[in-house]
Amino acid sequence: MGTRKTSVHKFPQPSRPHMPGYGLPKSSRGLLAWKWAEDRLKKSHNYWITTVKPDGSPHTMVVWGLWQDGAFLFSTGHESRKARNLVKNDHCIVCTERANEAVIVEGIAEEVRDASVRHKFFSVYEKKYEYDMSSFADEPIYAVRPVVVFGLYEKKFQTAATRWKFGKTE
């Protein structure tokens, strides 16, 4: 009997999303490359984040953030609705700003405590937004690690709708 090996793909493998009634093809022809999604995650200026309130209802807000080292990072105040929601339920959704080239990240958020990651975040954030975050150094920074990501490209929706699943594979 052989030993099972698990590995983490550097780039997630694309597949067709399950979307009954949309007439998506069964073949994988036309699926988007992961680079297409990452480019949009990096270049988006505004992002939508949806968290879950204690009563189970959704809370959506616009944030600034960064796609950095395979996760979406953003900062928020300790007492913000987002932060309070994430303390109770770490599941969330992050979406890029352009719906015609949408990237939707379903993920798990965790507070970033590593000083080097926080320093990199502040530095890159300042370059991207021309905004100095140093006065917010004590506020939480969250990293949303993707579980499933969807890419929906309006011009080629039928053939390009793509799903990427993250995590260990056999």
Written account of the structure:
The protein has one domain: Pnp Oxidase, Chain A (Roll), CATH 2.30.110.10. The chain is 22% helix and 35% strand. The protein contains four helices and eleven strands, in the order E-E-H-E-E-E-E-H-E-E-H-E-H-E-E.
> What characteristic shape results from the CA principal axes?
globular
Unreliable stretches (pLDDT < 50, length at least 5) are: 1-9
- The tally of beta strands, per DSSP, is 11
Domain count: the total is 1
Largest sheet: 9 strands, antiparallel
Cα-based radius of gyration, to the nearest Å: 17 Å
Terminal residue distance: 16 Å
- Structural class from helices and strands? alpha+beta
Give the amount of beta strand, in percent.
35-45%
In DSSP terms (H or I, runs of 4 or more residues), the helix count works out at 4
CATH architecture identity: Roll
CATH topology: Pnp Oxidase, Chain A
Oligomerization state: single chain
Helix content: 10-25%
CATH class: Mainly Beta
Give helix and strand order, one letter per element, not per position.
Answer: EEHEEEEHEEHEHEE
Q: How would you state the average pLDDT, rounded?
A: 90
From the structure above, extract its key features.
single chain, 170 residues, alpha+beta, Pnp Oxidase, Chain A, nine-stranded antiparallel sheet, 4 helices, disordered N terminus
